[in-house]
């Protein structure tokens, strides 16, 4: 299968929701910062219909799925710390528990002699907090 025949990734995997933006934030400042993780297809600053100021969030769509942008925290745009998350459809975002942040991982399938027997599990996993 050639690249041109490869199935396209779902747009939801390419789209990020960026929250915590300044009211003065522009498409150019968001694009200038977040393009380091991939090529943009779209960058939409949401504006208040009355004041025309930037709302404190934006949607960014990359050409391909990008996890690096969400993993490389903290992010700072126009002097404000912002939080990128994978964008969810309106229906998905209204489900109970949709906005919970989970700080647990499951590490399994390891033999007892290959897992952290020296009490170093905190050291090995601390970077993922």
From TrEMBL:
Residues 76-95 are annotated as: Disordered. One of its GO terms (cellular component) is catalytic step 2 spliceosome. Keywords: RNA-binding. It holds the Pfam family RRM_1. The keyword Cytoplasm does not apply. This is RRM domain-containing protein. Coiled coil: none annotated. One of its GO terms (molecular function) is mRNA 3'-UTR binding. PANTHER family: HETEROGENEOUS NUCLEAR RIBONUCLEOPROTEIN A1-RELATED, HOMOLOGOUS TO DROSOPHILA SQD (SQUID) PROTEIN. Residues 14-89 form the RRM domain. InterPro entries: Nucleotide-bd_a/b_plait_sf (IPR012677), RBD_domain_sf (IPR035979), RRM_dom (IPR000504). Residues 76-94 have a biased composition (Basic and acidic residues). One of its GO terms (biological process) is mRNA splicing, via spliceosome.
């Amino acid at each position: 299968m050639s690249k041109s025949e490869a199935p396209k990734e779902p747009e939801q995997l390419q789209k990020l929701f960026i929250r915590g933006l300044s009211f003065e934030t522009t498409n150019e400042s968001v694009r200038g910062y977040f393009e380091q993780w991939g090529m943009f297809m779209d960058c939409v600053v949401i504006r208040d219909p009355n004041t025309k100021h930037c709302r404190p969030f934006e949607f960014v769509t990359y050409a391909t799925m990008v996890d690096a942008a969400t993993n490389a925290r903290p992010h700072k745009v126009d002097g404000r710390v912002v939080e990128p998350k994978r964008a969810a459809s309106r229906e998905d975002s209204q489900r109970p528990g949709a906005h919970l942040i989970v700080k647990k991982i499951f590490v399994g399938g390891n033999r007892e002699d290959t897992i952290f027997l020296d009490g170093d599990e905190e050291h090995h996993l601390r970077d993922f907090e």
